[in-house]
Amino acid sequence: MPGAIELGLLYGLMALGVYLTFRILDFADLTVDGSFTTGAGLCALIITHGGNPVLATAAGFGGGLLAGMVTGLLNTMGKIHPLLAGILTQIALYSINLRIMGRANLPLLRATTVFTPLSDRALLGTLTSIVLFALVLALFVLAMNWFLSTNLGFAMRATGDNESMARANGINTNTTKIIGLALSNGLVAASGALIAQYQGYADISMGIGLIVAGLASVIIGTAIFSSSRVAVATAAVCFGSIIYRVIIQLALMVGLQPNDMKLVSAVIVVLALLIPRWGVFANVRARRRARNLPAEPDVTAPIEDRDPVSGLVKPGA
Amino acid sequence: MLDVVNIHKAFFPGTINEKVALAGVDLHLDEGDFCTVIGSNGAGKSTLLNTISGRYRPDGGAVKIDGQRVDRLPDYKVARHVARVFQDPMAGTAAHMTIEENLALALGRGTTRGLGPGITQAKRSFFRERLAVLEQGLEDRLTTKVGLLSGGQRQALSLVMATFSNPKMLLLDEHTAALDPQRAELITRLTRELVAEKGLTTLMVTHNMGQALRLGNKLIMMHEGRIILELGGEDKAAASVEDLMAEFDKIKGVQLSDRTLLA
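The joint structure predicted for all components is written out below.
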């Protein structure tokens, strides 16, 4: 179980990235499946060539930035539908990732990684490593919260919330989308770089279906720690990531095969989406919503008061 | 200040659905002018506003603000100088952001948005001061999500957001039409006060002829993509709703005789 929590924390970075596109920009970005492997591949390549593991992880982040930028350009300049733009980048990245890695699997068995200091002291899988991972992830959460509270962060949130309002206030929504997608995929790729080092290899298929895990983390996290505050939601998706990995671990423990995990992932997301609408949960939500309803309902000008030909409202009507 | 020179705009040009929305509109506003726009549905009022704000690109003609052409700029660049309030109270604010976050977004109009803090104490006290003018109690609810406000409150907030960064132009597109009469009256009053305070050059579309006459120093009436009546200064002050209705009846008469001729 400590292993599942560690994985959850490492994948938490990916969940943060998915949160940025899916919830902040309101952009369902499928680039993730490709950029995760890009980060892992770049990092593994540099480490196998004797590079510094921290720099290698940073390089993975950089690769993700570029991948996200491509999706952003396709969507904004190319006016390609978000889903299609993401899929196009993702499929192109499959070939690029193979080029980067040179083959489908790149082992890191005896190489020095960012985790070597921990594994040398046999600290992986202990409370120490969990606390350490959590602290690092917390730094990223704080950085994300800070970013989303800056002027640029506000502009990005407005872009996802009400794009025409954002443009009417002078925000170049193309730029905010490209920056958001780049940052998001940078985080996803950094997560991929860490996972590759943690499990000791980069594999061409390690990103397949990963967007589902990302969405699951975001949906589970924000459903449990329901708050409309961004600073709470960023921490919540990290918890969502841990919960997701624990559920996967439990599924493995009851005898399901690793090959069944994609099915399990999909079922988890479906349940996370449906359960809040059923029974007790629905009542809780309805009550919560009722508390938040506006005090005064809006009234629309009655159409009968308008002159049928001119469409004008007569005074005193 | 604002020069609209012979602009044309058609939707679905060259198809059977072609609809000419603007058929050669000329309009000049001086600095500080407050011009109301009336006209029947489909007269091109909203298209005119959308063209000035850069959302639509005109098929021909030019839009100049302070002598600079803006009709080829993307809408977000025009928005540096032109603020808008829409008819739909939901359209002008970001529902999932708080009141102060929305105000901070609007305050950033015309600036490059970098990594400076979105909210500062200085901004907050400025927001409080500006919101107090509305007398809606919003100044004590800075961290409330805008989605929880009523339509009238959102419209009042939109007005403040549109005016407090001193845009060169203010465009109001039937911004009281979706509200009940009481709240519409309140927003109309606030509009008059805010525009007067800043001396903003304003173009306001309205369906309410009484409102069109009460507000501003200029009035234009549009029909089928053209300006068919322009009243300024004393002419406008002297005009009554009956006069405007008479003008509309004239158009109706023309249409009627056209139809009779065709029949």
